[in-house]
Every structure is written in C-alpha cells, then in structure tokens.
Amino acid sequence: MHRSDLKLSPVSSKGTVGVLATVSFTEFLALSFVALVTIGSPSFAQSQSAPMPANAQPRSYGEGWECDRGYRRDDDACLAVIVPENAYGTNRTYGNGWACLHGFQEVDGATCLEVVVPDGGFLDPSGQRWNCLRGYMKVDDICLEVVVPDNAYLSADSYGAAWLCNRGYQVEGDTCVAIQVPENAFLNASSYGQPWTCERGYFERDDTCEAVVVPENAYFDDASYGPGWKCHRGFSESDDGCAEIILPDNAHLDRSGNRWECHRNFQRSQGRCVLND
User: Fold this and answer.
1) I need a labelling partner for 262 at 20 to 30 A (CA). Which of 172, 203, 211, 239 fits?
2) Distance between start and end Cα atoms, the chain
3) What are the phi and psi torsion angles at 134 (to 5°)?
4) 19: DSSP letter
C-alpha cells in the first residue's frame, strides 16, 4: 500500500457494517487540525459566539474587537459617550471619557460650568480656576485691592503679609511708624527683636546706647555680651576694674591669663598650692 493512501477496514457496530473509505493522508491531517482548533480553542469559540457589535472595529493587534472613538464598551455592546456642553471627548478607557474645555470646570462629573473670573483676577493657566492679580488678595469669591499705607510697599510673599514697611519703619496696626533710633546707634537688618544696634564702643541700656568705659589694665571688647572690656593678661576682673593677680608659690597663670592654677603634683587649698600626698 502506498503511503499516501489510508484504507479504513470495515468495522462492525451493533451489527451494522461500516463503509470502506479511502482518503489521502494529507486531507486526514488537515481535518484533524481543524477539529482540534474548533474544539480546543476558547477564543475561536468565543469569536464565533460573540460577533462584533455596531460601532466597533477589529483590534489593531491580537484578536477580538474594540469600540470606535466616542464609544465605550458595555458587555458585548458599544455605547455612545455622552459629552456635555463645553466639553470634548477624550477617547480614554478610564474617567468620564470627556474633559471640560479651557475656561470651564467639571461639576459633579456631569457638566462643565464656566469659570467666572472676578475683577482684579485672572484665569489660571490650567483653565479651571482663577487667581488674583498682584495688588489684590483673594477673599471668598472676589479679589480685594490691597490698601498699602504710607511708607510701605507690596510684598512679594504670596502667603505672608500683603505689604511690608520701608526700611526705618515698623508695623503698628495698619500703619508704618518711624523707628526711633537712639544716639550712637544704627538700624539693623533683623526682622525680629530690637530694630537698631549700638555702634562700636557703646552698649545698650534702657533703650539708649551708653559709651563703654574701659578701666585701667583692660582693653575694649566688642562681644555682644559682658561689660564691653576684658582685663589684660595677669589681671582679673574685680568690681569695676582689673586687679593684678598675685601668684602663690608653685602656681602659674592659666590659658586665659586672667586666673591661676597650681603646678603639677600640687593642688589648690585655701588660696595656696600644696603638695599632693
């Protein structure tokens, strides 16, 4: 028998004699493949059972179909997206399927209302809200003009005060009053605390600047604390002056030069340096 022919022998089934059939080997394999695909492929069966609905088109890749632009899939149908007035379709598979035009704002996911910009305001670049112009401040749904008092200027800070006082003035209620700078002082740049600082050689006392009096055996010290002077090396502060340091036996001046300490192997006791036991 040639390999290309396949003979089926008569087969008996419940007493009935089967019919002899001769088919080509190639045709047999083709029929077997079609039967396998038809029975074993769910996608094939589904495509046969769920035909493409109206307002749909075959997918650009893979199997199945997808809705046309402006339609949304709902089970096995494509329903039209209802685009409200002052909106446009986005053709997105998520969200509402539409978005409001520039200058309109979405309300309750159903309508697009015009953004009403009050006097003294401008439409935000997003097109969905508004902001106030410089020189105005937002109060509820309006922009109120900022009233700048004398000796003040508009602030560039969008969160702090709407205006600030000029240099040399300070806020007092809704006005800017001149800062009273005492003699021998100058305005500082501090935004808190005392707005003025005493000049070098002076120290603050009772809102005035008094001259620093440097005692004998001392020198001027411009530290922000202390009396404004320090004693020379070998002298220590005493009352309002500098007293000479008298070193006891076995002692020397410490690192500061304004105190003394005992030599090694000696310890301080009642103003003297005694040998350690």
Assistant:
1) 239
2) 128
3) -60, 135
4) P
| In contact, 266 and 273? CB cutoff 8 Å | yes
* Whole-model pTM over 0.70: no
Encode pLDDT of 185-210 as tens digits.
999 988 788 899 999 999 888 899 99
Single-letter amino acid, residue 57: Q
pLDDT tens-digit series, residues 215-265: 999 999 988 788 889 999 999 998 889 999 999 999 999 999 999 999 999
Contacts of 41 (CB under 8 A, 6+ apart): none
Phi, psi angle pair for 214, to nearest 5°: -90, 120
Q: What element of type H or E holds 136?
A: strand 136-139
Q: Using CA atoms, how far apart are residues 77 and 184, in angstroms rounded to an integer?
A: 89
Query: What is the crossing angle of helices 25-40 and 42-49, to 10°?
Result: 70
**What is d(CA 143, CA 130) in angstroms, rounded to the nearest whole number?**
10
72: exposed, middle or buried (Cβ count in 10 Å: 0-12, 13-18, 19+): middle
Return the half-sphere exposure (C-beta side, CA atoms, 13 A cut-off) of residue 163. 22
Are the beta carbons of 217 and 237 closer than 8 angstroms?
Answer: no
The CA distance from 26 to 70, in Å, is 49
Chain-centre distance of CA 85, in angstroms?
35
